[in-house]
């Protein structure tokens, strides 16, 4: 499964970068969403992908019965998902506010500070 | 511990403003007690050090990096420490008179104390790192002192110049010291000096020597870096008397003397130091004659003295090193006194131009006497201590092996020019007909006379009784520089020999130059166009070039277009990561293909969502595609044993789509803003990143550098943390602080969102009111 994931993550990165190079600020934000998702997947797959063995410990036992998926990348990605959402919410409100003031969603028209 | 006694000066500096509140104008005299006490302590160590003892005060700092705060007192450190503390005491007393009532006296005290401690640390430090830290501290504090009159453009410019030149050298020095530490395998000067020829034969010897010499030469104003020192005369005179005679500018000389036992004596060392020293010596004396500003005259003669010291270190014979320590002491005594005299003249007459002064002797008899004694020592006239130093210097260079005639010629020329300088400084203002000065001159207050008087008296006393200096301090200092125990015996009378003849001839020539000084200056003025092309012009050109280059690269790299910044970042990433991935580690791709149909469908949906989001021309289409991608990712997480991630992703993705729908539809429709060519370029850049990332992942799977730490977490989840969901246990237990930080970030983001939505800046005048309304219902 991993080679396919590697290609998929590569495509996600490429799409994200392409969007971030647009002049429209909305596309920039969508690019950011793609980028954070791609990075999350990168961390998630880097530990290897395991089917059907979630890192849970059955009741009554002190340790899982067999090998389980690595819990650490999962914890890191969980944090990252939430943080990415925080950043996204901030960015979206920021561009809305910027549009109100500058009246443009074209980044080229935002490059001067004295609008 | 001695370290704390010395470093407590920093604390004292911090409390100086408080002391000002209590003692007012006499704070200088109170603060002078600090160097005075240290000076007494150092004096008390002279007998022990004389016997060849080395006092060490060990203190670990960062033992894992081999850094220590160890202070070592040997003969050389002791000589410097005494100069720093004794002259420091008098400079503080002197400043109490010179800067009396100055509004920034507090600032002066803080910085000069900090400088004093840094300088002491520099000469006492045993560790290379400690030495470097103190070295840079002296650069910073001296920058603040040169620029003391910060309202004056010239002072600011000179301070900046001194800082840039010494910092550039400091960078080279850092590299040199690191190489020295690597080559010697030790960061302790004492250990390095005990290594014999190991360092001289090391492969790194040439580069490390060049780097260290660059540091020392810039700090000690050696040719061609000498120009910053005369410009630094923009500082108030107490600063010049302290930094630019005995302490800061001698730091480079100190470092060279300190490393003489381990690095000195090679052909390269002898060649560079002798030639640069001799050139500096001559340049300083020659340029001095051209000036009429008394402080510049003295500054250039300091350049001359620093050159002499470097040259003597270069020659490096036992006699040369004895001459070195003698000259060092003599110069510090008379130059400190003369700078203070210059300050008195400036203070009392209101001018620094010696041609504007004359006949001041009846008005200020004590100053005149002090000036005369100190100047005689500068000129090297018997029976002053300067005479002994100069005799030794002549004797040494006549016996030099490398570049003898060049050195002798330059030294002789420098000597008689220096004599002229001494005469100009001591005779011109005090004798001849009285000239009107901007201020009506009268004798200086006692506080300003004590320092120069004591220093001049010492010059005379040591000249008459050289055994006093020779027996004690200089024996110890010379032994430390040479690296083995020697005995220094100094005498005023050496019999009639070549050095004495040279002294007498140079006295006569010097007096002639003095008599015809005005004509000499007029002749030399013709050289001005040539002088304007000196090293200082090179410095200015370099600074202009730096401004041009930074302007150019700012326009290229930071042109205000967002995508340009992103492009630069990405291209750098591709270049660096790609380089090390493809060229340095040939990628070994691990290819384990084990797929199931439903997984491929989910991943395929994810990829299509991303691609469609990238090319969609409608806002809704883009948002829907992002949603599809997000939900496919959630499914992937669930399929591959990460239920918590799947749940979180589902929630977040839902919120994201709602947020985007709510906000984006208040923005205009997508417009086609870029040309096809730009799009092709962007596709290529983005595609390279994608390929790079894919290769990176495929390579990374084949590499297992460390044992994962998650095994511990899995094992101890129930026994220690009492939780069955290991991911949750990691979040709230093993990495609880991380999660707390995350909560803070979210809270901050939430506050930011609320602030942007609810808070409005007060409406600026001239803005249409309609805008406000429009925003309010947005």
Automatic annotation (TrEMBL), chain A:
UniProt source species: Billgrantia endophytica
Q: What is its main location?
A: membrane
Q: What is this protein called?
A: Na+/H+ antiporter subunit C
- Belongs to which family? Belongs to the CPA3 antiporters (TC 2.A.63) subunit C family.
Give me the segments passing through the membrane.
6-21, 28-49, 75-95
Q: Which NCBIfam families match?
A: PRK09094.1 (NF006573), PRK12659.1 (NF009302)
Which membrane topology term applies here?
A: Multi-pass membrane protein
InterPro entries according to UniProt:
CPA3_antiporter_subunitC, NUOK/Mnh_C1-like
Superkingdom to which the source organism belongs: Bacteria
Keyword tags: Cell membrane, Membrane, Transmembrane, Transmembrane helix
PANTHER family to which the protein is assigned, alphabetical = ANTIPORTER SUBUNIT MNHC2-RELATED
What Pfam families does UniProt report for this protein, alphabetically?
Answer: Oxidored_q2
User: What is one term from the GO cellular component aspect held by the record?
Assistant: plasma membrane
In which compartments does the protein localize? Cell membrane
């Amino acid at each position: 499964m991993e080679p396919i994931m590697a290609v998929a993550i590569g495509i996600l990165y490429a799409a994200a970068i392409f969007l971030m190079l647009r002049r429209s600020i909305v596309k920039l934000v969508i690019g950011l969403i793609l980028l954070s998702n791609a990075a999350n997947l990168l961390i998630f797959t880097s530990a290897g992908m395991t089917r059907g063995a979630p890192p849970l410990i059955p009741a009554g036992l002190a340790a899982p019965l067999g090998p389980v998926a690595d819990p650490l990348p999962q914890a890191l990605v969980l944090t990252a998902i939430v943080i990415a959402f925080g950043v996204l919410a901030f960015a979206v409100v920021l561009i809305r506010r910027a549009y109100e003031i500058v009246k443009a969603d074209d980044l080229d028209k935002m490059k001067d500070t004295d609008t | 511990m001695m370290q704390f006694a010395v470093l407590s000066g920093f604390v004292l500096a911090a409390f100086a403003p408080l002391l000002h509140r209590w003692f007012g104008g006499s704070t200088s005299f109170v603060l002078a007690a600090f160097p005075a006490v240290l000076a007494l302590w150092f004096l008390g160590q002279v007998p022990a050090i004389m016997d060849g003892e080395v006092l060490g005060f060990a203190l670990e700092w960062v033992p894992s990096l081999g850094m220590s705060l160890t202070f070592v007192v040997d003969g050389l450190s002791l000589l410097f420490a005494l100069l720093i503390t004794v002259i420091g005491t008098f400079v503080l007393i002197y400043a109490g008179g010179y800067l009396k009532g100055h509004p920034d006296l507090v600032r002066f005290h803080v910085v000069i104390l900090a400088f004093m401690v840094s300088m002491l640390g520099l000469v006492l430090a045993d560790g290379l790192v400690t030495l470097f830290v103190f070295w840079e501290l002296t650069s910073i504090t001296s920058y603040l002192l040169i620029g003391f009159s910060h309202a004056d453009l010239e002072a600011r410019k000179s301070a900046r110049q001194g800082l840039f030149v010494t910092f550039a050298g400091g960078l080279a020095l850092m590299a040199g010291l690191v190489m020295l530490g690597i080559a010697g395998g030790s960061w302790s000067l004492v250990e390095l000096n005990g290594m014999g020829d190991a360092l001289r034969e090391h492969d790194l010897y040439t580069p490390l020597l060049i780097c260290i010499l660059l540091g020392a030469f810039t700090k000690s104003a050696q040719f061609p870096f000498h120009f910053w020192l005369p410009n630094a005369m923009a500082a108030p005179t107490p600063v010049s008397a302290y930094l630019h005679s005995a302490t800061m500018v001698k730091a480079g000389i100190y470092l060279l003397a300190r490393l003489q036992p381990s690095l000195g004596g090679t052909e390269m060392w002898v060649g560079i130091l002798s030639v640069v020293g001799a050139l500096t010596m001559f340049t300083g004396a020659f340029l001095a004659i051209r000036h009429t500003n008394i402080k510049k005259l003295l500054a250039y003669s300091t350049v001359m003295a620093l050159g002499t010291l470097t040259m003597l270190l270069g020659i490096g014979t036992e006699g040369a090193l004895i001459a070195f320590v003698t000259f060092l002491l003599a110069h510090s005594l008379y130059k400190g006194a003369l700078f203070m005299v210059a300050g008195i003249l400036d203070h009392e007459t209101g001018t620094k131009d010696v041609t504007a002064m004359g006949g001041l002797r009846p008005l200020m008899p004590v100053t005149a006497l002090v000036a005369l004694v100190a100047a005689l020592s500068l000129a090297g006239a018997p029976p002053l201590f300067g005479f002994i130093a100069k005799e030794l210097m002549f004797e040494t260079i006549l016996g030099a092996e490398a570049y003898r005639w060049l050195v002798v010629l330059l030294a002789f020329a420098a000597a008689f020019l220096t004599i002229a300088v001494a005469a100009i400084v001591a005779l011109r203002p005090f004798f001849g007909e009285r000239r009107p000065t901007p201020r009506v001159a009268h004798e200086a207050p006692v506080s300003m006379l004590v320092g120069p008087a004591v220093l001049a008296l010492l010059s005379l006393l040591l000249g008459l009784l050289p055994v006093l200096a020779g027996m004690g301090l200089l024996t110890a200092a010379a032994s430390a520089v040479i690296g083995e125990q020697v005995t220094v015996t100094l005498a005023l009378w050496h019999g009639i020999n070549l050095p004495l003849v040279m002294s007498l001839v140079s006295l006569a020539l010097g007096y002639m130059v003095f008599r015809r000084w005005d004509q000499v200056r007029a002749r030399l003025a013709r050289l001005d166009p040539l002088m304007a092309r000196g090293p200082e012009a090179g410095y200015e050109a370099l600074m202009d070039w730096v401004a041009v280059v930074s302007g150019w690269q700012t326009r290229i790299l930071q042109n205000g277009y967002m995508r340009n910044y992103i492009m630069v970042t990405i291209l750098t990433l591709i270049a660096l990561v790609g380089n090390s991935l493809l060229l340095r580690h040939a990628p070994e791709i691990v290819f384990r293909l084990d797929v199931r149909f439903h997984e491929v469908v989910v991943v395929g949906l994810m990829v299509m969502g991303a691609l469609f989001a990238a090319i969609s021309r409608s806002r809704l289409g883009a948002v829907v595609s992002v949603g599809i991608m997000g939900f496919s990712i959630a499914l992937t997480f669930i399929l591959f044993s990460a239920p918590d991630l799947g749940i979180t992703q589902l929630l977040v993705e839902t919120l994201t789509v709602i947020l985007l729908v709510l906000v984006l539809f208040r923005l205009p429709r997508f417009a086609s803003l870029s040309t096809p060519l730009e799009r092709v370029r962007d596709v290529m850049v983005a595609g390279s990143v994608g390929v790079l990332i894919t290769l990176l992942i495929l390579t990374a799977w084949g590499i297992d550098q460390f044992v994962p730490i998650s095994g511990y977490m899995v094992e101890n989840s129930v026994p220690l943390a009492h939780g069955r969901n290991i991911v949750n246990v990691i979040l709230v237990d093993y990495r609880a602080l991380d999660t707390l930080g995350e909560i803070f970030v979210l809270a901050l983001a939430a506050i930011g969102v609320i602030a942007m939505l609810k808070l409005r800046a007060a409406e600026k005048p001239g803005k249409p009111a309609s805008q406000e309304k429009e925003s309010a219902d947005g």
